[in-house]
Design brief:
The chain is built from 17 helices and no strands. The two termini are about 20 Å apart.
Length: about 400
């Protein structure tokens, strides 16, 4: 049966596609909360940027440590059970903010965030590759960009609503516990929904990965030059993107441009650019080769980050927001390019790629630099990350590279 190659997904996959896409909103929301929680705890607990960076370090350490077990779980039991397990961890970790807020202990918050990170990586390891397979291979990158757009919507909602709530509350315990309690209840409710629905598993003719040991699968994947480069590029992108998100409020307030509450609104506007970038990118990539889009956007991020480093007032502020528009398509595009033509190795490859949010620990380096030499120089870290993404895009454009 012939299908329109420009359609995002086949009719038989519409319901699974819609259900999985809701998960992108959830983890976008959960990750964006960290960007306002970071500054909120600095204010309420009187800690440095470096100290508060442990929020990102702990959460993304959960990603790093749980990514391979998540891949094994999904390989053995399928995407659906991986999603349910991830939602359960996510929900329970969120509810742990209740006792954490009661005792007002920073390590208690870190434990809850670590468990949330473990849950989120299960969701992302299942959902990202699953979306690429729910339709024609030609539209896999566009499809993943579309779903990832709801990630941006979740982030926008988190920074606007939760950010205003954090920076207007007079107590630490209540302000932190309320949004996470609501989030935990919603997430566990969605886990119940996924427990009652059936998601089709996508098989492959060369389904041989289940019979191989994990080390052998990793060896097969790492023999592929474009997968190795994609893994590195995705790690560098995560270093840049997460670090800038986490540092945004600290930077604009440190420059004296605005207050914390205003900064959270401006961050929301930046995330709106991010969301628009993904929706527009998803549409454009049905007509333009993804590697061409990735190259153009990489040039945009490198140029914009360099302008931020030049520290030229309003131009730097505008360049900082522009980064969000240019980087929007990077994660899903690199992810789908790295997974292309991997067949039965797709799930294992996805688990390796989902170790890359450990790059969020790059914010710790930005914090150390900010506390010691000033608020502008730390942008050399995301600049280096975007340069690697540009090199990957240029390499992927060559005729002998894997192309969509």
């Amino acid at each position: 049966m012939q299908t329109d190659s420009r359609r995002l997904t086949d009719k038989r996959y519409v319901v699974p596609f819609a259900l999985i896409t809701t998960l992108f909103f959830l983890w976008g929301f959960a990750r964006a909360i960290l960007d306002v929680l970071n500054k909120h705890l600095q204010n309420e607990m009187d800690i440095t940027i470096t100290h508060s960076a442990l929020i990102q370090v702990t959460t993304y350490l959960g990603y790093f440590l749980m990514a391979i077990p998540a891949g094994i779980l999904i390989n053995r039991h399928g995407y659906r059970r991986g999603v349910i397990f991830g939602l359960t961890l996510f929900g329970l970790g969120s509810l742990l903010f209740i006792p954490g807020a009661y005792i007002e202990a920073f390590p208690a918050f870190l434990l809850a965030l670590f468990i949330i990170g473990c849950g989120l990586v299960c969701l992302e390891t299942a959902a990202n590759p699953y979306v690429t397979e729910l339709g024609a291979p030609e539209t896999a990158t566009s499809r993943l960009n579309f779903s990832q757009s709801f990630n941006g919507l979740g982030g926008l909602f988190a920074t606007l609503v939760v950010g205003q709530f954090f920076f207007s509350s007079s107590t630490l315990g209540g302000s932190v516990a309320v949004p996470y309690t609501v989030l935990g209840i919603v997430v566990l409710g969605i886990a119940v929904v996924f427990g009652r629905v059936s998601l089709p598993e996508i098989g492959h003719e060369d389904d041989k990965a289940d019979g191989l040991r994990g080390s052998r699968v990793a060896e097969l994947l790492l023999r592929r030059p474009m997968f190795r480069f994609g893994l590195l590029a995705l790690l560098c992108y995560e270093v840049a993107e997460i670090s800038i998100n986490s540092y945004f409020i600290n930077f604009v307030t440190g420059q004296g441009w605005m207050t914390d509450r205003t900064a959270s609104v401006v961050l929301t506007c930046a995330l709106a650019f991010f969301m628009v970038g993904r929706f527009v990118g998803s549409w454009l990539m049905r007509r333009i080769r993804p590697v061409t889009m990735l190259t153009a956007c990489a040039v945009g991020t490198v140029t914009s980050t360099a302008l931020v480093l030049c520290d030229v007032g309003i131009v730097s502020m505008l360049a900082l927001v522009a980064i969000y528009l240019f980087e929007a398509i990077m994660f899903p595009t690199i992810f789908s390019l790295a997974l292309r033509d991997l067949g039965s190795l797709t799930k294992s490859a996805a688990s390796l790629l989902m170790m890359t949010p450990i790059g969020g620990c790059g914010f710790l380096l930005m914090g150390i630099l900010a506390d010691s030499v000033g608020v502008v120089l730390p942008f050399v870290i995301p600049l280096a990350g975007y340069i690697v993404v540009l090199l990957y895009a240029l390499r992927a454009r060559k005729p002998h590279a894997v192309q969509p």
